[in-house]
Design goal:
The complex is a heterodimer of chains A (about 600) and B (about 250). In chain A, helix 1 runs parallel beside helix 12 (about 560-580) and helix 5 crosses helix 12. Chain A has helices at about 15-30, 45, 55-60, 120-130, 145-160, 195-210, 255-260, 260-265, 315-325, 420-430, 470-490, 560-580, and strands at about 5, 10-15, 35, 75, 85, 170, 170-175, 215, 225, 230-235, 270-275, 275-280, 290-295, 300-310, 340-345, 350-355, 370-375, 395-400, 430-440, 450-455, 460-465, 495-500, 515-520, 545. The two termini of chain A are about 40 Å apart. Chain A is globular. Chain A is of the alpha/beta class and about 600 residues long. Chain B is mostly helical and about 250 residues long. Chain B has a domain at about 60-105 and about 120-210. In chain B, helix 2 packs across helix 4 (about 90-95) and helix 4 (about 90-95) packs across helix 7. Chain B has helices at about 5-10, 60-75, 85, 90-95, 125-145, 155-170, 180-195, 205-210, and one strand at about 30-35. Helices cover about 35% and strands about 0% of the residues of chain B. Classes of the chains: A alpha/beta (about 600), B mainly alpha (about 250). At the A-B interface, helix 2, helix 3, strand 5, strand 11 and helix 10 of A face helix 1, strand 1, helix 6, helix 7 and helix 8 of B.
Chain lengths: ~600, ~250
């Protein structure tokens, strides 16, 4: 028996970054807001206090903070002619669950996309000709540009207290920042982090080679910071437990450390945890969402009516919800028709270890976004003529951690076990610096999300099915970036290097990044997008879909900065336009 | 058990009364949060650490097998103790007896197919079942190909050859993927060597001392700018280190 609850103005499905920001913005507008979160309540003193937060086995290897496949997972295959099999345990990416979502256990690398990233199709076609875009590549321009989003990037960066150095202030290039970035109207709220030795050497080598190194923009605090909501974060202590961990010291921006303490005090906001939304309900016209149905941990179902429904879960879950709710047209790879699940993309990463005899890097003195970066090979910051690919990525020397189960690099041809392995680990643990590449993934006709015909989740619903592989574009680009990374590693003058190139088919097994994108992409018409430029559903105008699912393809940066900017952008559109005149904000 | 009922869930379902100030009378069995940030004394979600000194899952024969195997994967040598001395077998035992051994958080519904390597772990066995069956199968392999001897009776060189055969998939085991077992064994051995001592391995923090990892410290601010310096930190575990808690005489 489904219990029907009293109606509210807004229901938010999922309570991570986008849910927390929208909760704050829409309660500020006077709306009654309920957030429904599948996982439990989580907070610093209770779940990852400094007295027990530095626990590599529990948090990463036994996955204390992540989505549990036993309840919700997906099936995976590389190509449409294979049979997808379930992701039985997590590997390649680590979606969050619980209050704060993956915003608790991210590294904090907080980027803006390049202005040209927003015009991937137009820009590359103009510069390199239509033949530069393979027939099966389905990239498209964003329906919003960098200049429009700039004030919203700014809001997210000031909410978080990002540490960094501007490279382009109102069009003026600033020495020491990223000269390739789009113009920003003011500097970061906090100065760059103090730099450790490895990235410092990398920066010097990059400069010698004529590149433009700069300190990475970081959501790890370089000093104490009080954000515009009045929430204070503490200086980062460089403990080296960021990604896959919660910060015990209130030093990493998360929904908990920036928004939630203010939002939860409001009497027009309520959060319901341990409650999994099963579907979005619609009226008989199919064009109006009436609310959501969710189930609590006792198996009781509830219907929560709402005037506005906003999907704020992780992209895989948002796509799944649209598909199981029958909203929009599922993408069909054979015909190329349909939009829900289309243009799923990811990231392509590789790295080069540099082993030294005479230098000590003390890798355990780290932070998730502590590093020096060059952007000379990202986006279209370099000439792609004759290279056979478009897009790029950044190269970085991060010093994120020295956690020994995960991070004990060994030179080429070292066995994986035995006395030789042991001595190689002992010799190199303190003496290795690494250069990593972080590359874009363009969208492609055969990379998509749909429903699996066989496997089901704990609620009896079909699992999401992921079909994904890297294409020639990504492989060539990653090879190019890896060669540059090797050049940089050699320029640091190590004893030897080890190149960990991206080879073979994409695998769901080794951890790569939790940068899944697309599937609910934004666009300027309903033929090739699920949502319009305000992240509003074309089919159901009182339904909005947040997150990196909106990305038409995935640029060479970490997604969270843009996810935050798009959230503020949408909040503003709802507040200043939609509430005055509910209905489509863009005419199809 | 997908939805383990720990103390936090009891709170969320209203069984424990003390938190009423922040947990409203539920309109649903989810955990209602509004008005302020919830916090309850004594509600810290601390790690489940190893309290007992006894083996919980492995038989004596399985302990002997794993002691021999982990001693080859990370041997004791001039550099210091190996995985056996670090208690990796005891660590693995407790992991196999707990949620990891039962695959409690994994998707374990059929149908089952082996699939491509890129599709990951597809065994219907839990880690506990995998270890139990694989140890038996490896011993069977040794008996039938190495003169009737079990793995523990082999010389270190012979043991290395067997392990290497499992690693490369050259040894075929009945109904078990040898590489799947080897990958789990190696991963769990490294975990038992480098994880916090509260889980029963990394005894005396020998893994951390070998490489120079300072352990569960959280504040290095004074050291960030000390480039290329040897920093002689004594490692610390979540429960401190032995020097903080001298044994009672």
């Amino acid at each position: 028996m489904v219990k029907k609850l009293p109606p509210v103005d807004v229901v938010l499905v999922g309570f991570g970054w986008t849910g927390a920001i929208l909760g704050q913005e829409l309660t500020d507008a006077g709306l009654n807001v309920v957030a429904i979160e599948r996982g439990g309540w989580r907070d610093t003193p209770t779940d990852f206090a400094v007295t027990f937060a530095q626990d590599e086995l529990r948090y990463y290897y036994r996955q204390a903070l992540f989505q549990e496949p036993v309840r919700e997972t997906l099936t995976f295959r590389n190509s449409p002619d294979q049979t997808a099999l379930p992701m039985r345990r997590l590997g390649s990416f680590l979606p969050g669950t619980g209050v704060g979502g993956a915003g608790i256990h991210w590294n904090g690398q907080t980027w803006r996309f390049l202005p040209s990233d927003f015009a991937a199709l137009r820009h590359n076609t103009e510069r390199y000709g239509a033949q530069a875009i393979p027939e099966t590549m389905t990239i498209q321009d964003w329906p919003v540009g960098y200049d429009e989003l700039e004030p919203y990037y700014d809001r997210f960066e000031y909410l978080c207290g990002i540490s960094g150095k501007a490279g382009n202030l109102n069009g003026q290039i600033v020495e020491g920042g990223n000269p390739f970035e789009g113009a920003r109207r003011r500097d970061y709220p906090n100065p760059p982090m103090q730099m450790v030795y490895g990235p410092t050497l990398f920066g010097a080598a990059a400069k010698e080679l004529g590149y433009h190194p700069f300190p990475a923009p970081s959501a790890n605090m370089s000093r104490a910071y009080t954000n515009p909501l009045g929430v204070t974060l503490a200086p980062c202590t460089y403990c080296g437990f960021c990604e896959k961990y919660g910060c015990g010291n209130y030093s990493k921006s998360s929904p908990q450390t920036t928004v939630i303490p203010v939002l939860l005090r409001k009497d027009n906001f309520e959060l319901r945890t341990n409650s999994e939304v099963l579907r979005v309900n619609r009226d008989s016209s199919g064009k109006r969402a009436t609310g959501v149905t969710y189930v609590d941990i006792q198996g009781q179902e509830y219907e929560q009516p709402a005037e506005i429904v906003i999907l704020c879960a992780y992209i895989l879950h948002n796509v799944h919800l649209l598909l199981v709710s029958g909203i929009g047209t599922p993408y069909d790879a054979r015909s190329g028709e349909g939009t829900v699940g289309r243009n799923y993309a990811y990231q392509i990463v590789s790295g080069v270890n540099a082993f030294f005899d005479d230098k000590l890097f003390n890798p355990y003195i780290g932070a998730g976004a502590l590093g020096i970066v060059i952007d000379d090979f990202n986006g279209d910051n370099f000439d792609h003529a004759g290279k056979g690919f478009i897009g790029g990525g950044y190269l970085a020397c991060w010093n994120t951690n020295g956690r020994p189960i995960e991070n004990s690099p060994t030179p080429e041809n070292t066995p994986k076990w035995g006395a030789k392995w042991k001595s190689a680990v002992a010799k190199n643990y303190l003496r290795t610096a690494s250069v990593s590449t972080h590359g874009a993934v363009m969208s492609h006709r055969n990379n998509y999300l749909d429903l699996d015909p066989t496997y089901r989740n704990a609620y009896g619903q079909p699992l999401l099915r992921m079909t994904f592989d890297y294409t020639d574009n990504e492989m060539k680009m990653s090879e190019f970036l890896t060669e540059r990374a090797a050049d940089l590693a050699r320029a640091m003058k190590p004893r030897e290097i080890r190149i960990n190139a991206r080879k073979g088919h994409y695998s769901i097994v080794p951890y790569q990044t939790t940068h899944n994108t697309g599937g609910t992409v934004m666009g300027d018409n309903p033929r090739d997008s699920v949502i319009n430029r305000y992240l509003q559903s074309w089919d159901v105008p009182n339904l909005f879909v947040m997150g990196a699912g909106a990305f038409p393809q995935n640029p060479g940066y970490n997604p969270t900065g843009t996810v935050g900017a798009l959230t503020y952008w949408t909040a503003e559109a709802i507040r200043s336009q939609y509430l005055k005149n509910p209905g489509p904000l863009v005419q199809a | 058990m997908p939805l383990a009922l720990n103390r936090r869930h009891l709170l969320s379902t209203g069984v424990a009364a003390g938190a009423a100030a922040v947990i409203n009378p539920p309109i649903s069995q989810g955990h209602e949060v509004s008005g302020k940030v919830p916090w309850s004394a004594g509600d810290a979600n601390t790690p489940e650490f190893t309290r007992s000194g006894d083996y919980q899952f492995l038989t004596a024969a399985e302990v002997a097998f794993l002691d021999a195997a982990v001693a080859r994967l990370i041997p004791a040598d001039d550099l210091g103790p190996g995985a056996k001395e670090a208690g990796a077998t005891f660590f693995i035992d407790h992991q196999l007896a707990g949620p990891y051994g039962q695959a409690a958080h994994w998707y374990m519904q059929g149908p089952w197919a082996s699939g491509e390597k890129t599709q990951g772990y597809q065994s219907r066995m839990t880690p506990a079942e995998l270890y139990r069956a694989a140890i038996k199968a490896v011993d069977e392999h040794c008996r039938s190909t190495l003169g009737g001897r079990e793995f523990t009776a082999l010389s270190p060189d012979e043991q290395d050859k067997v392990l290497s055969g499992l690693e490369k998939g050259e040894i075929k085991l009945a109904n078990i993927d040898a590489q799947t077992f080897f990958d789990a064994l190696l991963q769990n051995t490294i975990e038992g060597y480098f994880s916090d001592p509260i889980y029963g391995g990394n005894r005396d923090m020998v893994g951390w001392k070998l490489i120079g990892f300072p352990g569960a410290r959280y504040d290095y601010r004074d050291y960030v700018s000390r480039h290329n310096e040897k920093l002689a930190f004594e490692p610390v575990g979540i429960t401190g280190r032995p020097g903080w808690n001298p044994a009672k005489s």
